[in-house]
Amino acid sequence: MLSDVEDRQQQIVNHLKLNQFAKITDLVDLVNYSEATVKRDLVLLEKSGLIRRVRGGAMLVDNQKIDVPYMMKITQLDEATEKRYIADLASTVIKDDMVLFLDSSTTSLHLVRNLGRFEGLQIITNGIITAAMLSEFTSAKVSVVGGTIVQKRATINGAKAYNDVLTYSADLAIISCRGFDFYQGVTETHEGEALVKRAFRKQANHLMVLATQEKLEQRFIHQAIASHEIDYFVTSKKLSNEQLMKLQEHHTQCFY
């Protein structure tokens, strides 16, 4: 027979298997224990490798297609200080009259807030909300790549989007990532997303990768960008000597 703790944790895992992501408040209601107890359970489950704690909730780690719902990330933009810091650093590379590729990540949405001070920008994006924010907060000429909108992700990717990107040329491509490995480079959980990022790299003179700390040393199934293809790498904290050496081998400029 399971102990109360084991039973409670099993309920949490089963709920995540069914719902992909859960807020802490939902888990409190589910197991009928205090928020402090649920948070302790999540710490233990994360240590066991079953779940991953994220802002405001938890998700499974054994299903690579699971991610925090995109619209939930949007509602948390004002709280994401790490991404805002990365966006501030990234904007120092941008100049007036540039042509940019910009992906659909929430880190890119933070960058949008910094682009209003630039003149003459032309920006191509695969993000629906990204395009709307660019139109609202900047004077840039904005183009959205063609293709199918991915359900619940407010992004356009896949083969059609890849081919559409190939009709453009840009000075700089700016992308985030699901995982970054200092040997392998940028990887993604969705093949279509990896395809679009490869197209951005192919058609841009330079590539910038934006990576929060939780993305570092993570590898997923679909290769998007090789390490040697990255010109600028932006993160929020100083990297280890080994990590810096790997970037320097490819003459990648690092910002943190």
TrEMBL record:
<dbReference type="InterPro" id="IPR050313">
    <property type="entry name" value="Carb_Metab_HTH_regulators"/>
</dbReference>
<dbReference type="InterPro" id="IPR036390">
    <property type="entry name" value="WH_DNA-bd_sf"/>
</dbReference>
<dbReference type="InterPro" id="IPR014036">
    <property type="entry name" value="DeoR-like_C"/>
</dbReference>
<dbReference type="Pfam" id="PF08220">
    <property type="entry name" value="HTH_DeoR"/>
</dbReference>
<keyword id="KW-0805">Transcription regulation</keyword>
<keyword id="KW-0804">Transcription</keyword>
<protein>
    <submittedName>
        <fullName>DeoR family transcriptional regulator</fullName>
    </submittedName>
</protein>
<feature type="domain" description="HTH deoR-type">
    <location>
        <begin position="5"/>
        <end position="60"/>
    </location>
</feature>
<dbReference type="InterPro" id="IPR037171">
    <property type="entry name" value="NagB/RpiA_transferase-like"/>
</dbReference>
<dbReference type="Pfam" id="PF00455">
    <property type="entry name" value="DeoRC"/>
</dbReference>
<dbReference type="InterPro" id="IPR001034">
    <property type="entry name" value="DeoR_HTH"/>
</dbReference>
<dbReference type="GO" id="GO:0003700">
    <property type="term" value="F:DNA-binding transcription factor activity"/>
</dbReference>
